[in-house]
Amino acid sequence: MKMLTVVLLVITLSAYAAPPKREFYEIKIYEIANADQEKQVDDYLKNAYLPALHRAGISKVGVFKPIEADTAYYGKRIYVLTPFKSLEQFASLPETLLKDNQYVAAGKNYIDAAYNNPPFARQQSILLKAFSYMPQLEAPVLNGAKNERVYELRSYEGHTEKIYKNKVHMFNEGGEVTLFKRLAFHAVFYGEVLAGSRMPNLMYMTSFDNQASRDEHWKTFSNDPEWKKLSSMPEYQNNVSKINIYLLHPAEYSEI
Question: pLDDT at position 13, please?
Fold first, then answer.
């Protein structure tokens, strides 16, 4: 009887367990001017940055590049997606890295690059907070060859802060996140942009085995009765002012 009581108590407590804490994400974008800069950044990320993040307790870091067909449109860029458990972990990372002797040694060529031979043309960072309906990053399980996979990064800007929040609500309480999951879009993250060059804004990333799979998924999504119903609701009209779509493939050393 006592054992049964304990089991029932554990079940009851688990039912009321706090949901996972919402993560924070940094999307760092390197703009590179030539093949030499691309190699310098790749070497730094692969041999210094990612191993140092692992030692700092950070895993599942994604590194992506524009699909070649789209290079002319996007310019040559390298996207680095890093998840953080807290804002404090994000803010303290630069100091953590510089205290890591292995990182400093492995990243010397990048860290100590001369002014007339920099490893990138420019760099920007976007800070995000995970959506409440997908509070943590998920590394997708894909079956296609890694060099054929497509990661689709989308940015939805809002006309105003209030209207932008309406689109976030549409994703969460409105059911858009759930719809993407049902249709197997293999979402990596959904996030509210806290700081970036384009505001107010939300961003999310989905993933596919290949380009054909990506196109077929969006066709299915557009024709889905649930989406047609959701997108026609009066309360969710005109809640996006601009959409940017970036089609990416993973670097060979990407963990996502």
Answer: 44
Domain count, the chain: 1
Least Cα distance to 246 among 157, 156, 147, 152 occurs for 152
pLDDT recorded at residue 159: 98
At 130, list the tokens.
Answer: 């995970």
Q: Which residues pair with 18 in a beta bridge?
A: none
Are 77 and 122 in contact by the 8 Å Cβ rule? The answer is: no
Poorest-pLDDT segment among 10-14, 175-179, 193-197: 10-14
Does a structural domain hold residue 206? yes
**Three-state SS for 103?**
helix
Beta strands in the chain (DSSP E): 24-31, 62-66, 77-84, 122-130, 150-157, 189-195, 201-208, 242-250
1 domain-assigned: no
Over residues 124-152, the mean pLDDT reads 96
